[in-house]
């Protein structure tokens, strides 16, 4: 076992004291034995900097398409030592067994995962999920000290109406001393206050500064999110000077190709580059999550676990070394975490489909269709009523107007696909399909014609889960995701390369989106307005009811 006792001379960043001073850091048996400060009170420009490691305050590890051990292997190279991880995705597929899988796999590596108890499985009654996690299940999970919080309470209408089941889950969190994460996009004013008064302590869904200020005024912590699909950094970062004690950084969803490039370190670098005070930024990135979630993560104080990073400077934050419990887990961009191949668990029972399954009959000669509009970098959608293209009595896709077909196919039991229309994907040919479809993770696909849609869906079914692209001339490419249809158990860097390849193929079909598969995965997320599609039909997230795709 590598030695966890050593000394290191560096400019030590003490976030509790608010100082940066040259010192010799002493580590013994994986803990901070002491810090011997030198006489100088200003940093020594010849020395590197030692600071607490970065924490992602809210992430779904599953969205990296990697099992926890492989996620950790990539994240440590960027100075991340811990995550607050919501296993909601695998919970929707496998229930409590899925949460237990994440815990077990995470234990195999030197990384500090704080997993939550999923609060909303299934997320809504308007879609088919693979499992249910009840209040009794949550109480069972809270018996395990590794479960650190009640994960995001997406059922904000249930919170506002004080629904009995919702309040029982929040009450359990209070009884067991666990914080409760929120999820209430757009909620403001009196509604935001009532949401917070129920016991909700955070929100990562703010997409305007005004919304964030409302929630901060209610005593909530606001998480500044910058992931592969939803990006709110620019909208919220200027809140930091006045509100840094109640902010955290998170990614929420991070695809493997972007995780290879960076993580929370990128948000820290961007914030400092905008002129934000470095000690305040580091409190947001390192200290606040540890305190809020009571993480067993060190902050460079005597007796703390030796969880820290060494960087060249406090401008670029290039990570030289990452230590967890005194163990060197990454050095100069190379991970030192060794992993075994993780087990495969799944819940996948979809039956093959045909092009005929996606046919939409035209009720008149010139019908109108309700169209979902997706936006790059956002989870929210808009609704448009547009004239349909009709051929031989059928409503068909019209790539010339970027009016494509969207489908969600039940993966847990045979059922007819739900079909709707979408704009914003920009495909000129072919189709994309994915078994990563928040929140229930049925098969979601978008395409220019019914034949391509059927083939893309069938490729995912044949793989038992994955991402698939069907090109203009029938070319096919698949990234298998055998673990719950959400994750690969292969080497994280290999998966990142394979993901980059299917992403590039999707963009070659015409998509202007920064992350087409990530955006696709959110088109079934009913709890984010305004118009989404579940396996049961087209859903109006503002009226909270199903509507017809063809008006």
Describe the fold and architecture:
This protein has 551 residues and is of the alpha/beta class. It has two domains: 59-294, TIM Barrel (Alpha-Beta Barrel); 355-547, no CATH class. It has 16 helices and 30 strands. The strands form six sheets. Strands 3-2-1-4-13-14-15-16 form an eight-stranded mixed beta sheet, with helices on one face. Strands 19-18-23-22-25-24-26-27 form an eight-stranded mixed beta sheet, sandwiched between helices. Helix 2 (88-94) packs across helix 3, helix 4 runs parallel beside helix 6 and helix 12 packs antiparallel against helix 13. The radius of gyration is 24 Å and the shape is globular. The N and C termini lie far apart (66 Å). 57% of the residues are buried.
Quick recap of the structure?
The chain is α/β, with parallel strands linked by helices. The protein has 16 helices and 30 strands.
Summarize this structure as a short list of keywords or feature phrases.
single chain, alpha/beta, TIM Barrel, 8-stranded mixed β-sheet, globular
Give the helices and strands, then pairings.
Blueprint: E1 6-14, E2 19-28, E3 31-37, E4 49-52, E5 54-59, H1 68-75, E6 80-85, H2 88-94, H3 96-106, E7 112-117, H4 135-142, E8 147-153, H5 156-160, H6 164-175, E9 180-182, H7 189-197, E10 202-203, H8 209-217, E11 221-225, H9 233-236, H10 240-243, E12 247-250, H11 256-261, H12 264-273, H13 278-293, E13 308-311, E14 319-324, E15 327-331, E16 334-335, E17 360-361, E18 368-374, E19 381-387, E20 389-391, E21 394-396, E22 404-409, E23 418-423, E24 431-434, E25 443-447, H14 450-463, E26 466-470, E27 476-480, H15 492-508, H16 516-521, E28 531-534, E29 537-540, E30 545-547
Parallel strand pairs: 1-4, 5-6, 6-7, 7-8, 8-9, 10-11, 11-12, 18-23
Antiparallel strand pairs: 1-2, 2-3, 4-13, 13-14, 14-15, 15-16, 17-21, 18-19, 20-21, 22-23, 22-25, 24-25, 24-26, 26-27, 28-29, 29-30
Helix pairs in contact: 2-3, 4-6, 12-13
């Amino acid at each position: 076992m590598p030695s966890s006792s050593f000394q290191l001379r560096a400019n030590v960043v003490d976030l509790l004291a608010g100082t940066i001073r040259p010192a010799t850091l002493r580590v013994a048996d994986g803990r901070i034995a002491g810090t011997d400060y030198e006489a100088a009170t200003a940093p020594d420009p010849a020395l590197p900097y030692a600071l607490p490691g970065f924490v992602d305050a809210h992430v779904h590890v599953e969205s990296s398409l990697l099992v926890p051990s492989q996620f950790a292997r990539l994240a440590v190279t960027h100075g991340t030592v811990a995550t607050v991880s919501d296993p909601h995705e695998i919970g929707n597929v496998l229930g409590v067994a899925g949460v237990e899988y994440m815990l077990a796999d995470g234990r195999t590596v030197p990384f500090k995962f704080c997993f939550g108890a999923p609060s909303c499985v299934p997320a809504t009654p308007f879609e088919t999920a693979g499992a249910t996690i009840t209040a009794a299940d949550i109480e069972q999970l809270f018996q395990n000290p590794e479960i650190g919080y009640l994960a995001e309470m997406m059922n904000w209408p249930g919170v506002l109406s004080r629904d009995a089941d919702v309040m029982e889950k929040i009450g359990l969190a209070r009884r067991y001393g666990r914080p409760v994460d929120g999820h209430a996009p757009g909620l403001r004013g009196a509604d935001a206050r009532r949401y917070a008064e129920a016991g909700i302590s955070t929100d990562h869904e703010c997409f305007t500064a005004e919304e964030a200020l409302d929630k901060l005024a209610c005593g909530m912590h606001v998480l500044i999110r910058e992931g592969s699909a939803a990006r709110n950094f620019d909208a919220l970062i200027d809140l930091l000077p006045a509100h840094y004690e109640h902010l955290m950084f998170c990614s929420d969803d991070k695809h493997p190709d972007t995780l290879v490039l960076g993580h929370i370190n990128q948000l820290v670098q961007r914030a400092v580059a905008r002129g934000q005070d470095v000690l305040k930024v580091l409190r947001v990135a390192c200290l606040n999550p540890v305190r809020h979630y009571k993480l067993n993560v060190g902050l460079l104080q005597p007796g703390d676990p030796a969880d820290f990073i060494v960087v060249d400077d406090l401008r670029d934050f290039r990570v030289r070394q990452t230590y967890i419990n005194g163990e060197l887990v990454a050095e100069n961009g190379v991970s030192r975490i060794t992993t075994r191949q993780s087990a495969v668990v799944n819940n996948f029972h979809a039956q093959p489909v045909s092009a005929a399954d996606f046919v939409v009959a035209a009720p008149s000669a010139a019908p109108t269709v309700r169209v979902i509009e997706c936006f790059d970098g956002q989870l929210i959608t808009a609704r448009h009523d547009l004239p349909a293209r009709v051929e031989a009595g059928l409503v068909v896709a019209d790539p010339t107007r970027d009016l494509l077909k969207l489908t969600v196919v039940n993966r847990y039991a045979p059922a007819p696909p739900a079909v709707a229309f979408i704009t914003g994907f920009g495909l000129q040919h072919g189709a994309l399909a994915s078994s990563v479809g928040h929140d229930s993770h049925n098969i979601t696909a978008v395409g220019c014609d019914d034949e391509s849609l059927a083939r893309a869906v069938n490729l995912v079914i044949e793989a038992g889960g994955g991402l698939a692209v069907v090109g203009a001339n029938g070319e096919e490419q698949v990234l298998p995701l055998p673990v719950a249809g959400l994750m690969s158990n292969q080497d994280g860097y290999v998966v990142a390369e394979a993901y980059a390849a299917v992403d590039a193929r999707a963009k070659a079909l015409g998509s202007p989106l920064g992350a087409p598969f990530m955006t696709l995965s959110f088109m079934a997320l009913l709890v984010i307005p305004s118009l989404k599609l579940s396996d049961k039909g087209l859903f109006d997230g503002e009226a909270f009811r199903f509507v017809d795709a063809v008006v």
